[in-house]
Amino acid sequence: xxxxxxxxxxxxxxxxxxxxxxxxxxxxxxxxxxxxxxxxxxxxxxxxxxxxxxxxxxxxxxxxxxxxxxxxxxxxxxxxxxxxxxxxxxxxxxxxxxxxxxxxxxxxxxxxxxxxxxxxxxxxxxxxxxxxxxxxxxxxxxxxxxxxxxxxxxxxxxxxxxxxxxxxxxxxxxxxxxxxxxxxxxxxxxxxxxxxxxxxxxxxxxxxxxxxxxxxxxxxxxxxxxxxxxx
Length: 231
Ligand code: SAH
What we know:
single chain; alpha/beta; seven-stranded mixed beta sheet; two-stranded antiparallel sheet; 6 helices; 9 strands; globular; disordered C terminus; binds S-adenosyl-L-homocysteine
């Protein structure tokens, strides 16, 4: 399916309003704001939620998952400072919208999603936009993607009770990892940096709610207990 230019014109005004809202939340990096114009969010969500595609809110994308709030994604990008040379690992492709934003900022993006149908839909939207520096994999992202490690940037879009050790292991020197950490109900955004072989941790945002990271080093699907130690 090609991008319908008429639909795109219809949505351009909404996109500008969304960008103003993101700017209103303190993100004023022009390169980041422009990404939200270059990647039309409605193309990444089911047609039934197109009227809400440019609200600054999380929206349902099916399979019990949500596309994250755009201003939080803008915060991710402003904290991570992705450069054109960077190799990025994204955990939780979801709609693929953040994947697209990252792909236009980085050299290459590797993105893992546990729900096959979402990965397939994300691929279709990325193809429509001719974004072709993205590798998608279906599987448990809590183990990272060792084959392409180390990564300059690791972006986790699902909430975890603790930082999976695989992510820290797969972080390059100078690398940045962002991940929501907390309970199932509420998390803080943690930024973890590897500098001179030291690991630095800081909280960059409080009180947010992401869908759970389900897998070996995240939550188990049935309860709020963490997975058993797999060693
Ligand atoms: N940035 C995405 C966020 C989607 S929500 C967007 O804006 O659309 C987070 C996604 O993480 C969900 O699609 C969920 O299925 C996925 N997820 C949860 N646990 C995962 C795991 N262990 N590995 C890969 N993906 C996972």
